[in-house]
Amino acid sequence: MAQTKETALGEALKAAVQSISKKKQTEMIAGHLYTSYPVFKQFKPLAIGIHEALGAALPQYEAQLIGRVLSNHCRKPRYLKSVARGGKRFALDGKPAGVVSDEEKAAAHKQCEDLEARAQLAAQTAKPLASKPAEESTTEAAPPAAE
């Protein structure tokens, strides 16, 4: 009888969550991960296959949305730098679960360099655009001569 109640409650929770927009659900998942699992908050290298553990821990959410949140987390510069340093990987409970391979370290290092290069390029292209409207406004500021 207790299992039937838990199943019914789980199904009701899943139905309620799925009525919320996908964007809101991903925000909820991200918020839950960062508050419930220190490995996310501390940006530690995650265990290989952690998406399966997350799916089991968060059955009320679609696996695709959990994957999206996980993908976003793993592309953050702070996470990439953590992987590039190497060392242990960690499970949801914070216990070591494998190590970062040399190939993974190199790939993360390359992604960090690419992000920094894009940020520098964006900063360089943003400066001329920011000064351009100011120059245009000085040429247009003079009112037509009144006769």
Could you characterize what this model shows?
The protein has 147 residues and is mainly alpha-helical. Helix content is 71%, strand content 5%. Strands 1-2 form a two-stranded antiparallel ribbon. A hairpin with a 5-residue loop joins β1 (88-90) and β2 (96-99). The radius of gyration is 24 Å and the shape is flat. The N and C termini lie far apart (93 Å). The relative contact order is 0.09. The mean pLDDT is 83.
Number of strands: 2
Q: Helical percent range?
A: over 70%
pLDDT averaged over residues: 83
Which class of secondary structure composition applies to the elements? mainly alpha
Strand order of the largest sheet: 1-2
The helix/strand series, from N terminus to C terminus, equals HHHHHHEEH
Low-confidence parts: none
Number of helices: 7
Largest sheet: 2 strands, antiparallel
Give the overall shape, derived from the CA principal axes: flat
**Termini, distance in Å?**
93 Å
Characteristics:
147 residues, mainly alpha, two-stranded antiparallel ribbon
Helix and strand arrangement:
Blueprint: H1 2-18, H2 22-36, H3 38-41, H4 50-57, H5 63-74, H6 77-85, E1 88-90, E2 96-99, H7 102-140
Antiparallel strand pairs: 1-2
TL;DR?
With 147 residues, the chain is mainly α.
